[in-house]
Amino acid sequence: MDKISTGISGLDHILKGGLISGRNYLITGPPGSGKSTLGLHFLRQGLKDDENVLFVSLCEIEEDLKDNAALYNWDVSGIELLCIDLIDVMETPEYKNFRYFENLFSVLFAKKNYHRIVFDSLKKITLMEPKIEARRRILRLMSTLSSQKDCTVLFLDDVNKRFNSIQMYTLSGIIRFYFTRTPGGRERAVGIGKMRGDFTDERIHPYKITKDGIEVFSDKVLFEKLNI
């Protein structure tokens, strides 16, 4: 199995070398935990490896994404950005018959083979639609993005137990960011909730967000196992 780097050395160490290439993964955690920052790490690593990369955002406009990257002095000019305003598209016939994302990505995939995609975020869909419709749309979205051969996809999402069954059984792995209380105060923590077909470090490790992005301390352990 070929593995690819997340762009964060400490996280790669926990993952025993990185993510298995060509699979779909969920990155979950509360707002401000660093999910989008991980997504940018992941895509920037793809640029270093001479890969085609795509950031799909339902949450931010292009200028905001570039401003966020500028906080770390990151050049994201090589990352293809696709910002979608769901409010603008929800009333279209394509969206109502669940074909919007399929049609959109079929056009993109016909023009270019992407190696890495970040989709931010599933939470926007679950907030704007009834449960059944949102579940169906997310499943079709995941299936559509899986159709791109040899492409590794990160789906970002806030903590949402309603869709845990989709996340657990449809995706190949889950990386969870969260805040926890320790004797030293509140700390950022990261754990691997599931990684299908792979052996990973199941312990919970601290991380920080610095001027250079996310730093995961794989040599330090907060807890022995993550409960999801």
Secondary-structure blueprint of this entry?
Blueprint: E1 3-4, H1 9-14, E2 19-20, E3 24-28, H2 35-48, E4 53-57, H3 62-70, E5 80-83, H4 86-89, H5 93-96, H6 100-111, E6 116-120, H7 122-128, H8 131-146, E7 152-157, H9 164-170, E8 173-182, E9 185-195, E10 205-210, E11 213-216
Parallel strand pairs: 3-7, 3-8, 4-5, 4-6, 6-7
Antiparallel strand pairs: 1-2, 8-9, 9-10, 10-11
Helix pairs in contact: 6-8, 7-8
How would you portray this structure in words?
The chain is of the alpha/beta class. The chain has a single domain, classed as P-loop containing nucleotide triphosphate hydrolases (Rossmann fold), CATH 3.40.50.300. The protein has 9 helices and 11 strands. Helix 6 (100-111) runs parallel beside helix 8 (131-146) and helix 7 (122-128) packs antiparallel against helix 8 (131-146). The relative contact order is 0.21. The mean pLDDT is 90.
